[in-house]
Amino acid sequence: MASFFGQISSKYSNINHLLIFFEKINIHKSNITHKIPKENALKKNIINIATKKSKEFSIFNVGFFLKAVTLNARIVHVNGLRKT
């Protein structure tokens, strides 16, 4: 999983391209399953935070926020560390 997102972050060097990529994944997933409005609001909020913080964080860290959103993850393992 980590290598998959490593390939994405190297392929999409611009944060706007990365956001568009994850938005396409979310659109595809929303066509398959219906989402609860509360979850959608939470995801939009996290994406907004990631966008605003993009100047402070590297692409990898912004990708981490978006990865958690895209996978609907509450807990994600990064480099062997448990992040919530």
Sum up the structure in keywords.
single chain, 84 residues, mainly alpha, two-stranded antiparallel sheet, 67% helix, 7% strand, globular
Descriptive overview:
The chain is mostly helical and 84 residues long. It has one domain. It is 67% helix and 7% strand. The protein has 4 helices and 2 strands, in the order ααααββ. A two-stranded antiparallel ribbon has the order 1-2. Strand 1 and strand 2 form a beta hairpin. About 7% of the residues have low confidence.
SSE diagram, text form:
Blueprint: H1 2-11, H2 15-32, H3 37-52, H4 59-70, E1 76-78, E2 81-83
Antiparallel strand pairs: 1-2
Helix pairs in contact: 2-4, 3-4
Structural class: mainly alpha
Helix content: 55-70%
Q: Would you tell me the overall average pLDDT? A: 56
Instruction: Report the sheet-strand fraction.
Output: 5-15%
Radius of gyration: 13 Å
The helix/strand order is HHHHEE
How far is the N terminus from the C terminus? 17 Å
Question: Could you say how many structural domains there are in total?
Answer: 1
Report a brief summary of the structure.
The protein is mainly alpha-helical and 84 residues long. It contains 4 helices and 2 strands.
